Amino acid sequence: MTGSPHEALHRIFQEDTSLFTRTLHRVLGVQMPIPHAVSVISPDLTDTRPMERRADTVLLAESEFRNQIVVVESQTDPEEQKRRRWPYYVSYLHDKHECDVTLLVVCSKEKTAKWARGPFTIGPPGNPCQVTRPFVLGPDNVPIINDLGHASQDVVFTVFSALTHSRSPQAAAILNVLAAALDTIDTDSAGFLAEFTEIGLGETAARSAWRTLMSAQSYRYQSEYACQLRSEAKAELRAEVEAEVKAEGKAELVLRVLKRRGIHVPSSTRDQILSCTETTTLERWFDRALDARSIEDVFN
């Protein structure tokens, strides 16, 4: 299972190793030979020098006519170091495996996608000796899948669409059809993809929407996953309630101390104390109330 949004955007090409051919043709109109076998190979591109270079995902696509390497890079923000690394990845793998190399960059931010298209050149301006033009998939060109019929035809691509558009206003619409589309495939695969989606959405509003959808609706594939989400939601709610009760009790203690010490508390100040939910603040007010001579001493 992937552990972050960065990993999810390239790891999805490992989970469905023919996804790259379908996606390049569907999004960019690039027709690639249909491979008869695709395998994940080592992403370690380190040579004999003590400098480690590691791509995100590297696939070896074998077909009847020719083999090719596909390097999949997940890029969150523009990174100048990649201007030097990406040309190296392509040339290194081309030399090592003696076959064509395709560089595919996937982004969830439109600004990053525009930057990643390059071209990245090495050599004199106007006459570069090497030019790197990655294929780039991002929110500006990956289709928004918000129709159940289309989503059901390629569920993994729908997951990819959801992750790519995780920061866009269309994310909720994609997630709604994705949830229903997952119910059309086997439950084991659907359960895995549901969890994969949650992790891949990262710390976005879309992730909260997905968790709400998974815990509120009922699908065949949810089972343990849904139970886990409901349990977590109940635990979070319980913790919030306990925190509120704890804070309410501390607020009452502050007021009791002030009353015992004969300090007048205006109604507006009383409301301020009772509405406070930060226990550290209430504890500070309590400590001050023990020695305060006026209400101002509690807050200043």
TrEMBL record:
<protein>
    <recommendedName>
        <fullName>Rpn family recombination-promoting nuclease/putative transposase</fullName>
    </recommendedName>
</protein>
